[in-house]
Specification:
Helix content is about 40%, strand content about 10%. It has 14 helices and seven strands.
Length: about 300
């Protein structure tokens, strides 16, 4: 049933993010809003059942690349399926075999009785090329991060997911554009929302460094912008993954993958927003990170200029 048939007092929010932008830490913070339902990365979870996204996995990859993307993903998925989830984490997850973009849209537009807030967080490339599948009835918001910091973190994860043959060095530029184009798709989604009158007014954008260095200001302004009640208690939370058991809907596959790569580990271990670290010295940053980050900088700057400011 469509979101419009839900309680008129229920707040519905989407948070869109490139990877490694502290979006899961921010989502953990939101987990402690009274009466909230969290939905974690549903479109990302639907990737294996999304022909449009699967087509993009190898598009634009040069024949000289030493990374076998599809083969690496198949091996990674097979390893994921062997991971055991214990206790209530198993109950929090949905079966990925049913997860398609249409299924996700229906889930998000469905009713959540008894919930004051529905908060869904997803990665931007999970919906790339299929903006018509975004849910109705949501306020769309965005989280961004300094490109160099983001790409350094992405590279660590990609190195584990996409091993190269012995004697070769991993390079981000070996990967298809899907894995190294971050902020242009965000701008494209903002433009789509504007053109299709899905959202009026200025985009609601927050930056990871601002959140870390000015958490009270940014969290309060974000809550005010989307209609979530703010309380100072949101600025600290318990360590661990109890939030998942408490009020998350999340793919079993994503929880299983976290056991291998640990992409949620820092967020689950967190108890508050910590001050951001300075950028590394450029000559200490891998050359491929520098190149990809510089390509992203103009798109990031456009978003940064539109952000909620401390």
């Amino acid at each position: 049933m469509a979101a419009e048939s839900s309680s008129t007092n229920q707040v519905r929010v989407m948070l869109w993010s490139p990877p490694r932008c502290l979006s899961t830490v921010f989502q953990k913070c939101m987990s402690y809003v009274d009466g909230i339902q969290i939905i974690n990365e549903p479109y990302q979870s639907a990737g294996a059942n999304n022909p449009e996204l699967m087509k993009q996995l190898t598009e634009g990859q040069g024949p000289e690349s030493q990374v076998q993307v599809q083969e690496s993903i198949d091996k990674f998925m097979a390893t994921i399926e062997q991971q055991e989830l214990g206790g209530n984490l198993q109950e929090a997850g949905w079966d990925d075999s049913v997860c398609t973009p249409a299924w996700v849209k229906n889930l998000l537009e469905g009713q959540f009785p008894g919930k004051k807030v529905v908060f869904a967080k997803d990665l931007i490339f999970g919906i790339r090329g299929q903006f018509h599948m975004i849910p109705k009835g949501y306020k769309h918001t965005f989280i961004i991060r300094n490109p160099t910091k983001m790409v350094i973190s992405c590279r660590r994860n990609y190195e584990m997911m996409f091993p190269v043959p012995e004697g070769h060095q991993f390079n981000l530029l070996m990967l298809p554009p899907l894995f190294r184009e971050f902020y242009q798709p965000v701008l494209q989604l903002i433009e789509y929302l504007k053109e299709n009158k899905e959202q009026t007014g200025d985009p609601i954008i927050i930056d990871a460094d601002d959140i870390q260095n000015h958490p009270a200001s940014i969290v309060r302004q974000y809550c005010d912008a989307v209609g979530i009640p703010y309380n100072d208690s949101l600025l600290e939370w318990p360590a661990g993954n109890e939030c998942v058991k408490k009020n998350w809907l999340v793919s079993k596959m994503m929880l299983q993958g976290d056991r291998i790569i640990g992409y949620y580990a820092a967020a689950f271990a967190s108890t508050k927003f910590l001050p951001s670290k300075p950028l590394p010295i450029e000559n200490e940053i891998p050359a491929d990170v520098v190149e990809v980050a510089k390509l992203e900088e103009p798109f990031y700057k456009k978003l940064y200029d539109m952000r909620i400011k401390p």
